[in-house]
Structure formats: structure tokens, C-alpha cells
Amino acid sequence: PTAVCLRNIITLSGSLTKLAYYSTVQHKVARVRSFDHSGKDIDNEPLYEISVQEEITARLHFIKFENTYIETCLDFIKDHLVNTETKVIKATGGGAYKFKDLIEKKLGLKVDKEDVMTCLIKGCNFVLRNIPHEVFAYQKDSDTEFRFQTNHPNIFPYLLVNIGSGVSIVKVESEDKFEWIGGSSIGGGTFWGLGALLTKTKKFDELLQLASKGQHTNVDMLVKDVYGGAYQTLGLSGNLIASSFGKSTTADKEFSKEDMAKSLLHMISNDIGQLACLHAKLHNLDKIYFGGFFIRGHPVTMRTITYSINFFSKGEVQALFLRHEGYLGAIGAFLKGAEQDNPNQYSWGENYAGSSGLMSTSPDVYPMQRTRSGTFDMLEMDRLERPLVNLPLLKDPSTYIPDTVDLTDDAMARKYWLTCFEEALDGVAKRAAASQPDSVDAQERAEKFRQKYWNKLQTLRQQPFAYGTLTVRSLLDTREHCLNEFNFPDPYSKVKQKENGIALKCFQSVIESLDSLGWEERQFALVKGLLAGNVFDWGAKAVSDVLESEPQFGFEEAKSKLQGKGRSLDLDLDGPPHKCALIFADNSGIDIILGVFPFVRELLSRGTEVILACNSGPALNDVTYSESLIVTERIAAMDPVIHSALRDEKLLLVQTGSSSPCLDLSRLDQGLAVLVRERQTDLVVIEGMGRAIHTNYYAVLRCESLKLAVIKNSWLADRLGGKIFSVIFKYEVPCK
């Protein structure tokens, strides 16, 4: 359910209307609460109570309509977004003047126009800051046409080249400081206007389709047409355009519409590219972002601009494009209207379940049927509870890439993982429905989830670049988003509850066994216990099959599964103790209680403070922050080392800010980052396949780090040269 909109923005350009609105979304969340066990037989009681509650969160919606359907767009606003308190609708873009009277008459609201360029800059800053895979370079002849860029922590300064009817070139230095430094009257309107005269084609997209099929060399005069080959003295290739439309002065034949459209596109793109390069060099800027309706995500346009920038800058400057460039004005206008709420104080995340992917509407890449309403592209952004920042211990945040394998690049891995997620889908839907046995519509919602995620997977087969770089992490996150959309906030809550209870009963005996060992034997046993605990991952099919078919499978059985060479697993803790260790925990149950906590206890005994970081929200059977509080409380009641560490704040439990089975060290809870600095953390432990293999395997930190996991996937184990249940134990010391 979505509550009444608080404010609306409408952005109008030559052919598209973009609608922005804010809503409060009501959805279900799983909560855990410790029971009062006083006077009860706790051995036969659940560890904690699980309840499903309603929570209200903020969401931004951005929708594109074709201007042909402007009346339908206004009907949508009138029926869903206008209430008795609404007096004004904000509008920006060139069409704000054109449609002003229609909007005011249809909606009965006053149109308040916002400055176009201010809105564009605000929107651009917003997406650069909040969407990790927003920026990409276009590579024509690469297997991966879209090469996504790592977001730099400092997004300023940059050059924004907005190609609308004309061209505006803006230097952006900070959130509120920007300067128009140049432009041209030769822009998208020129291409559209001259194209219409030359080809009699009135629609912009149809003109681009013609250009994509054309051969400009039939119309343009090349260097080799003038000099018989390359112009060696000036270093000019023979295939370089010497004169746009140059052959039309001498040829007696008629030129095709396609060839003329392609020549025109090259002429205008080359002019814009040279102009942008000159301004970038003049102002010493190396980041140039292109936007405006001329781009519209069309490959043929991005290809010509990329070539132009590369040629005129001699490869020193790269043309960069934005996944959501069509929404910049709408986003910026919304933010400007919401300044009293200061939306920039929050972090926002793209909701993959409700967003269309890049190129979903490109006519020459992936044709799609438009609905009769004319809506064909959507973006949803959810407000996150707390601001997200970089882990302070990253050696170079500007080059940090969370994901180990780029599935957009690796066709074999992409095919495997997409198939893997497809094959697991029925089981996930079944698990989701079973998690809510008292709900009459659980089966129906589970089927809707299954269909939605299946459709997403098919889109990613056709367009692996749809949501940025395709990775195992993005596939997992998209699945979690789809589960949440259909109100399955934590399908594994009961499983985690049961496994936490069982593991707690074994904790004291595990500790007694460890304490009976000599120092060296204990270190090996601790590490083996960490790895054995990590076997218990319901997200891995090889494990879930065992856990469902062999209920007695436990900690000792997991140890016997490990594939490793004995003492090579030792972690050298023989030196001086670390000041503070940051541990990113993985699974509930045996993993955290019998694997992680004995290791935490050993560190504490050595005088090392410990920050234990767990997910803010649920994902698979990963332990959440709220669950970790209850588990730690129960362990502290049994163990004096943990009890005193909690009391003296030597053991600190924090949330990561994530609800993913993987880990992005550039988007962590701000409170965690503050604590890492304050406690002078000098050891980071990252546990689990999702956090230490699918992500962060190559992450470089400024302190010692330990990445460990059990490989629970046969295909991945084979690729890494091992067997299933082989271990990853990667201890790294930074270079001095």
C-alpha cells in the first residue's frame, strides 16, 4: 500500500513527460524480541519471539510518459496524487511552458516552474552519490558495450554537457556551486529539425533508428576521398571525415534517408564532442557527463559522442553517461521542493523490484511493448534508515570494487549463475510461502514473487547491463527486493530461531573443549570452528539439501566436510594483541554461536577489543543485528569473558547498514565507520562466501585482514581449482 503523495513534480521535454512523486510505503518487517525466561524451563522455550509488524518507509517514484499520453499522465496525477491540501505542482523543462495551461485546467493546481539547470545539477549530484553503478562508458566493439565506473567518494568537480534542443556546458564544483561556461545552438533540436527536413521523418526515435541503419561514408567526404589515403603529415587517418555531407556537392544520385541521418548524427556529435573537450581542457576537468534528450540511452548516439571525445582528446578524456540521465531534472526539481526535509541528509537505494533497467526502451536493442497508458520507464528509490559511508580502512576508496566477478564481462559465469538462480527460484518461493503458514494469501504472493523475479532474470539474460554491472551480489539483492515487495521480509526467521536455540545449548561444551587445548592446538581448532560454522548457509543448495535431508547434521559433521591441509590454516596470533578487531559475521546458528563467538572470546582474552557487525535487515539465514543482541545476551549469561567485555564496552555490537548476503565496504552504516575510527581498528575479519568471495576477495585495506569462507558451490570450487567444501583462508598484511 502507498500513502497519499506529499509533493509532485512534473518535468516536460520535447517528447517525454517525467513525473516525480514521494510516497510513504507500508510493508511488513520481521521483529525479534527476547522472552522473559524468569521462572521458566528455558530448555523447552524458543530463544526469542518473532513478530511481523507494519513499517512505514519513504520512497521516491520517477515515471516516464510519452507526451502523446500527457492527458493520461495528468489523469494519473489527479486520481492518485492530488489531495485537498495540494495547491501547487512543480514543473520544469522546456515543456513546462507549453503544457502549463493544460496542467492547470486539468488538475486545478497552480504550476510553479523551477529553473531547469539548477534541477539538472541537483539531480545529477543525487544519482552520482546514491546509485553505485550510475556512470558508464560506452564501448562500441566490446563484448560488454557498457563499462560501469566505480563511484568516486568525491564526485566534484565535473563537466555536465546537457544536449537538449541546444547544448549547455556546465562546470559543477560543489553541491550548490556551478557555472554555465559555454554551449552551442547546434544540438538535439538541430538533429531533429534538419533530420525532419532531409528524411521527412518527424519522430525523434524513428530518426535515430534510421541513423543506426545508415552508412555515413556514402554521404560524407573522407580524408582519403580528398588525398587518396591518409594525410601523413598531420597524422590524419584516411577514414576520418573531412567534410560532412561533402559528397552531396558532386554526386548526381539520391542519398538514402538512413545514410543522411547517420551523416547528420556524426556531424552534430563531432561538433559537441570537440566543444566539450575544449572546455574540459580549459578548466582542467577529466570527468564529462553527457545528458539530455539527445542521448536517451541510444547506442548509436553514445557511440558517436564517445568516438568524438576520444578523437579530440587523444584518448585522455572519456565520455561518460548516466543510467538515469532522463530523470535528472525531475529528481532535482523534487529535491529542490523538498529542501525543508533535507533529503540529502539520508542515503537512498535503488529498488530493483520497481525499477526499469537501462535500455529497457531502446528501439534498436530490446524492443518492448508500451502499455496503453504510455508509461514505459520507472525508477524507485527507497530512503535508508541511516546514512551510508565508506569503511575508513579502505586503502583507496576511489578504486575499490566490491564484486569479485563481473558477470557482464564473463559470459560463461553469467550463464551459470542466471541458471543457478532460476533453478533455485521454486524452492525460494516455497520457503517464502511456508514462512507464513497463517496467512491466507501467502501462496498467491509467493507465486507473484516467483513470476516477478523470473521476469527480472529473463531481462538480465537479454540485458545483463540493465542495473549496472551484473554480479552475484546484484542477483541476490534483486531477489531480496522482490521478496520484500510481496511482503516476505524474512523467510528464514523460524529456521534462524531454531538453529540459534540449538547452537546455544552446545556453546559451553565447545568452550570447555577449546579451553582444554594447548595454545597452538587451540588456534587451529578456533579457525577450523570458524570455517565449520560457515558451512551452515541455507543460501547454498549443496548445504540446504543436506540440512533438509539430514536434520542431525551438526558442528562436528561440518568439520569433517572441510577440504584443507591441516596446519596451513593457522592464523598467527602469537605477536602483540591487536587494538581492535572488526568482524563481519555471516550466518545465524552454529556459524555465529559456535564459530564466531569462540574466536571473539579468544581475541578478547588477548586484550583485543571487538566490533561485531551484523546485517541491519534480513537476507537468507544471515544473522541480523537485532538477533545478535539476543544471542550475545544469552552467551554473556553463560560466559564471564563475554559478560565482562559487554559490561566494559570491549565488545560492541553494531549494524552494517546492509540487508544483503554480500558486503559493499563503500556503503556501510555511518555509526560503524565512526566506531572503527574511535577504536583504532587494526584487524578486519570478513566471513562467508557472499562477503569474502563474491565480494571483497580483492579488497585492499590499510590494516591486517582475514577473509575466510567455505566454498559451498561445486561450479565455483572447480573454477577456483578446488573441491566443494574447500576453504578460503586469506590473511593479508598491508605493505609498509
TrEMBL record:
It is found in: Cytoplasm. GO terms for cellular component: cytosol; nucleus. Keywords: Acetylation, ATP-binding, Coenzyme A biosynthesis, Cytoplasm, Hydrolase, Manganese, Metal-binding, Nickel, Nitration, Nucleotide-binding, Phosphoprotein. Its main location: cytoplasm. Residues 421-722 form the Damage-control phosphatase ARMT1-like metal-binding domain. It holds the Pfam family Fumble. One of its GO terms (biological process) is coenzyme A biosynthetic process. It catalyses: (R)-4'-phospho-S-sulfopantetheine + H2O = (R)-S-sulfopantetheine + phosphate; (R)-4'-phosphopantetheine + H2O = (R)-pantetheine + phosphate; (R)-4'-phosphopantetheine sulfonate + H2O = (R)-pantetheine sulfonate + phosphate. Its cofactor is Mn(2+); Ni(2+). Coiled coil: none annotated. PANTHER family: 4'-PHOSPHOPANTETHEINE PHOSPHATASE (PTHR12280:SF20), PANTOTHENATE KINASE (PTHR12280). In the N-terminal section; belongs to the type II pantothenate kinase family. Homodimer. Interacts with PKM. Phosphatase which shows a preference for 4'-phosphopantetheine and its oxidatively damaged forms (sulfonate or S-sulfonate), providing strong indirect evidence that the phosphatase activity pre-empts damage in the coenzyme A (CoA) pathway. Hydrolyzing excess 4'-phosphopantetheine could constitute a directed overflow mechanism to prevent its oxidation to the S-sulfonate, sulfonate, or other forms. Hydrolyzing 4'-phosphopantetheine sulfonate or S-sulfonate would forestall their conversion to inactive forms of CoA and acyl carrier protein. NCBIfam families: panK_eukar. This is 4'-phosphopantetheine phosphatase.
